[in-house]
Design a protein that fits this description.
By secondary structure, this protein is an alpha+beta fold. It contains 8 helices and 11 strands.
């Protein structure tokens, strides 16, 4: 048994987990209308992708950027970057690093558990500014079926997949608003996330939220 265990640990992952299930299509997965929100056809605010196109193309296999608006005219900017391989350098750069690299000032950074009816997602909240633009940001990062909070958790998930010879996929899920009132912005962002997760099938919800095996054992 010990020999078999050691052998399993030494197996080098060679198959992308993403290739073993239905293909991801972010454009089709995310509804253009959900809850009290609808996609804005000609958005007033630009969704920031704080990485160069060359780096984005290297890190991710798909990127979805949309702006949604509610009946009161409040806007939420959504950005989802999906990578079918989260091994080695193919991992999402944290917004708290990339936003400043693009000229933003990071005013604050906090962690939060984003509560949904399906479970709590470990998220990070930022308050960034650039000139007159004040942009509160909420994001989380998933590897495989798990939302992760640290590099250690990332390694644990990668190890679990590696024992089966698989390379996990993953994504960076980010919502933001142009709003100087952080409390209001985060309240609307939480509402938007909750309604988005309610509007998609369970399998897609798992991929987007990371409320999988790691969540279950905590």
């Amino acid at each position: 048994m010990c020999t078999a265990s050691v052998g399993a640990i030494l197996v080098m992952p060679g198959t992308k987990a993403a290739d073993r299930g239905p293909a991801i299509n972010l454009e089709a997965m995310i509804p253009k209308q959900l809850g009290g929100w609808r996609q804005e056809a000609q958005p007033v605010a630009q969704v920031i992708n704080p990485q160069t196109k060359e780096l984005l193309d290297k890190l991710y296999s798909q990127i979805l950027s949309r702006t949604y608006i509610n009946a009161d005219g409040y806007r939420i900017m959504l950005s989802i970057a999906y990578g079918n391989s989260q091994r080695g350098n193919l991992q999402a750069h944290k917004p708290e690093v990339c936003y400043p690299a693009q000229g933003f000032t990071l005013q604050s950074l906090t962690t939060a558990m984003l509560t949904t009816e399906f479970g709590s997602i470990p998220a990070t909240r930022l308050f960034t500014t650039m000139g007159q633009r004040k942009e509160p940001v909420t994001y989380w990062f998933t590897v495989g079926d798990s939302a992760i909070k640290s590099a250690i958790e990332k390694r644990i998930v990668e190890f679990r997949y590696g024992l089966t010879g698989q390379i996990p996929d993953g994504l960076l899920f980010r919502v933001s608003s142009i709003d100087g009132d952080q409390a209001r912005a985060f309240r609307f962002q939480d509402q938007f996330v909750a309604q988005l997760l309610e509007s998609v099938p369970p399998a897609d919800r798992l991929r987007l939220s990371g409320l999988g095996k790691m969540q279950a054992v905590q």
